[in-house]
Amino acid sequence: MAPPKPKASPAKVSSDGVKQSKLPRNVQKLVSHRTTRHLWSKLKRTAAKKKVPADKLLQKRPKFVVKKIGGEKNGGERRVLQKRTRRYYPTEPVFKKRRSGHVSFKSHKRTLKPGLEPGRVLIVLAGRHRGKRVVFLKQLASGLLLVNGPFTINKCPLRRMHQQFVIVTSTKLDISSVKVPEHINDRYFKVKRQQKEKKGDGANVFAQEKQTWKPDEQRKADQKDMDKQMLGLIRKHPEKKMLMSYLGSYFQLRNRMYPHKMKF
């Protein structure tokens, strides 16, 4: 014989004799549901400022307030809106600037590789100076690295390099006494593009040849100044001969040389 089924518990009855409705288990209350939880926390903060219980703010406020007025023919009372409408409206539509999750490039957080600090010797992996060893001076506002050869040792001038295309070595120089001019920034390295010439029938017959980029006098003076400061540091180093040859040599891989097993 099958066991008897358990009887459902009777619904709760209030003191007025009205049955109280019971929420199902899978339905959450407004204050605890994940979609409205942040609104409830905001409501609690507002209630704390106004020094009133939070449940009171959830109560629906009446739209109208009855106010007594004088005068025999005015009816004695009048309904007034609690939230009054605006008296004046703009003649042209005013659009509010909405906040978005987009962050501009200048607001990005600039981070560096582990071990990448001013004075480190880096190995360049890309560009016309790939394979050369350079000294890291500082990080620019764009996040690029300002490096120097020096030029008198390995013909690598003041350049910007991305940290993705360099290998950080364990060799480090103390460049605390080296002063990098303030005008050497991202704008300093920007090349002025020449206007493209027209082709076809509208082309200039007497157009001159394309001019190649050449460093100006300011760039040459800055390069000499930075090389002078860095060479003074290298000459004071106890192993200056080894350091000179190390910076002047190229990085290269031979047979059975595995980069992931090497210690730089």
Automatic annotation (TrEMBL):
Compositional bias of kind Basic and acidic residues: 211-225
Pfam short name (any one): Ribosomal_L6e
Record-level Gene Ontology MF annotations: RNA binding; structural constituent of ribosome
Domain of life: Eukaryota
Keywords recorded for this protein, A-Z: Ribonucleoprotein, Ribosomal protein
GO cellular component: cytosolic large ribosomal subunit
CDD domains: KOW_RPL6
Entry-linked InterPro entries: 60S_ribosomal_eL6, Rib_uL2_dom2, Ribosomal_eL6_KOW, Translation_prot_SH3-like_sf
TM regions (residue ranges): none
GO BP terms, alphabetized: cytoplasmic translation; ribosomal large subunit assembly
Complex and partners: Component of the large ribosomal subunit. May bind IPO9 with low affinity.
Protein family membership: Belongs to the eukaryotic ribosomal protein eL6 family.
Name of the molecule in the record: Large ribosomal subunit protein eL6
Organism annotation: Dermatophagoides farinae (American house dust mite)
